[in-house]
């Protein structure tokens, strides 16, 4: 099927469309940040939900008042940032605390991400969302999902090298994320990051051209992998 045959007869949209947006996801250490930088270098606006979450829980962050109200003043460190070690310990001891924290954070992350996207100056928006399939309603908010994919053995090796973590801890984090095969099935597009960094460039180039083309259209994006 060609794009033009599919879209030529579509009526014009009644309202001006939201900017074309891609969700970028992938397991820990697969190369999301590496890939995001490469799209940014080509003119996409990257909205990084990890950075947003960090700012929300930093000194003076917009989530801190609600966190203190919900969990107590002892969860704010002296500088006003979230006491991350204390929160990690609480969530470990009391798993329901995770849902209480996420109920505070997720709507704020979403609102801040959408606000950032609304002022984006790039040719299209990429939301970097590590847990896109695992949490929230990101899938419904983006036109396409791009997964960065690599074998699990490489994830483990990269994160052990980068963070100095023991293998068991990397595997424990991976166990909280969707399995590789399911992520591959759920994504519209895949970047394979099992070779050298240099192997990424042609893949990013192809996808960037595709996303630029989609961003100029006002009609429905086909859901099949292209
Ligand atoms: N193709 C590659 N070859 C060698 N090293 C790589 C490759 N891709 C990424 N790396 C390295 O592996 C590590 C993980 O990559 P990156 O930080 O981009 O992954 P990520 O998916 O953003 O990780 P996280 O989930 O922790 O945010 C980094 O140190 C990065 O430099
Ligand atoms: Mg990253």
Structural write-up:
This protein has about 230 residues and is of the alpha/beta class. The chain has a domain at about 25-45 and about 120-215: Rossmann fold. Helices cover about 50% and strands about 10% of the residues. It contains eleven helices and five strands, in the order αβαβααααβαβαααβα. Strands 2-3-1-4-5 form a five-stranded parallel β-sheet, with helices on both faces. Helix 3 (about 50-55) crosses helix 6 (about 95-120). The longest helix has 23 residues, at about 95-120. The chain starts with a helix and ends in an 11-residue tail after the last helix. About 25% of the residues are buried. The protein binds adenosine-5'-triphosphate and magnesium ion (MG). The site of adenosine-5'-triphosphate has 14 residues, from helix 2 and helix 8. GO terms for molecular function: ATP binding; dephospho-CoA kinase activity. It is found in: Cytoplasm. Keywords: ATP-binding, Coenzyme A biosynthesis, Cytoplasm, Kinase, Nucleotide-binding, Transferase. Catalyzes the phosphorylation of the 3'-hydroxyl group of dephosphocoenzyme A to form coenzyme A. It catalyses: 3'-dephospho-CoA + ATP = ADP + CoA + H(+).
């Amino acid at each position: 099927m060609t794009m033009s045959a599919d879209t030529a007869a579509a009526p014009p949209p009644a309202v001006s469309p939201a900017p074309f947006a891609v969700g970028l996801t992938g397991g820990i250490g697969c190369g999301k940040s590496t890939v995001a930088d490469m799209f940014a270098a080509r003119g996409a606006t990257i909205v990084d939900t990890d950075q947003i979450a960090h700012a929300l829980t930093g000194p003076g962050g917009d989530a801190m008042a609600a966190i203190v109200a919900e969990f107590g003043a002892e969860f704010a460190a002296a500088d006003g940032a979230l006491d991350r070690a204390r929160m990690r310990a609480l969530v470990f001891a009391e798993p329901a605390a995770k849902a209480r924290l996420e109920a505070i954070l997720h709507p704020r992350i979403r609102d801040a991400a959408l606000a950032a996207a609304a002022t984006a100056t790039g040719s299209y928006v990429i939301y970097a969302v590590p847990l896109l399939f695992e949490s929230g309603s990101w899938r419904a908010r983006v036109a396409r999902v791009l997964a960065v994919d690599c074998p699990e053995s490489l994830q483990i090796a990269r994160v052990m090298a980068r963070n100095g973590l023991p293998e068991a801890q990397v595997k424990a984090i991976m166990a909280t994320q969707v399995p590789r095969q399911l992520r591959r099935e759920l994504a519209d597009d895949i970047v394979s990051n099992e070779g050298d960094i240099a192997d990424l460039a042609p893949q990013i180039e192809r996808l960037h051209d595709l996303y630029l083309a989609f961003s100029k259209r006002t009609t429905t994006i086909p859901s099949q992998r292209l």
